Amino acid sequence: AAPSYADFDELVAAAMAAPRPLVVVLDGIEDPHNLGALIRTANGAGAQGVIIPQRRAVGLTGTVEKSSAGAVAYTPVARVTNLVRAIEALKDAGFWVVGAEADGKHLPYEVDMTGPIALVVGSEGAGMGRLVSETCDYVVRLPLLGQVPSLNASVAGGVLMYEIVRQRVTQDPSLVPPPVPKQD
């Protein structure tokens, strides 16, 4: 059976109670492998949860669960009817909303992402919807130095989540846990 969805309001409250709030908002991810990879990376980056839209996006399926390598068991995923309203509620709760677009105005390291952050990653191909993009406080782009104009949604999301981690660890090195010893 597929995992159940978290309550949006409870996810936001739990995130804001955390020392370093981070939620990942996914706008129209359709590939279950991308959703699973993004949930797994969100867990690794310390996110308190993931928010997805109810329509025009993949939901929690067995493929998503498998692709997340079990992270769906530890990372709450809330499914909302209106993503723009959810983002506005995140802003009202105290989050700064950072969206990712190929033509974003800022580079990720130009934006302070050490406080409460809601990171928005758009769909494969189309990116964020216009209203979602307009609701963001910042829209960032990755500096792509090759010939391709964009990265896979899960890769771009992972790079940005770990820019948030980098900024937070730079500010507070004690966040990094000791390495896990190898088992023989």
Short description:
With about 180 residues, the protein is of the alpha/beta class. It is built from six helices and six strands. The model has no long low-confidence stretch (mean pLDDT about 95).
Can you count the helices?
Answer: 6
The residue-averaged pLDDT reads 93
| Beta-strand segment tally | 6
Tell me the helix content: 25-40%
Cα-based radius of gyration, to the nearest Å:
16 Å
> Which structural class matches the secondary elements?
alpha/beta
Q: Which shape, going by the Cα principal axes? A: globular
Oligomer: single chain
Largest sheet: 6 strands, parallel
Helix-strand pattern: HEHEHEHEEHEH
Q: What is the first-to-last residue Cα distance?
A: 34 Å
- Portion in beta strands: 15-25%
Major β-sheet strand ordering: 3-2-1-5-4-6
| Low-confidence spans | none
Which keywords apply here?
184 residues, alpha/beta, 6-stranded parallel sheet, 6 helices, 35% helix, globular
How would you characterize the overall build of this protein?
The chain has 184 residues and is α/β, with parallel strands linked by helices. Helix content is 35%, strand content 16%. It has helices at 8-17, 32-44, 62-67, 83-93, 130-135, 153-171, and strands spanning 22-27, 49-53, 77-80, 96-100, 117-122, 138-140. Helix 2 runs parallel beside helix 6. The radius of gyration is 16 Å and the shape is globular. The mean pLDDT is 93.
Question: Could you give the topology of this structure?
Answer:
Layout: H1 8-17, E1 22-27, H2 32-44, E2 49-53, H3 62-67, E3 77-80, H4 83-93, E4 96-100, E5 117-122, H5 130-135, E6 138-140, H6 153-171
Parallel strand pairs: 1-2, 1-5, 2-3, 4-5, 4-6
Helix pairs in contact: 2-6
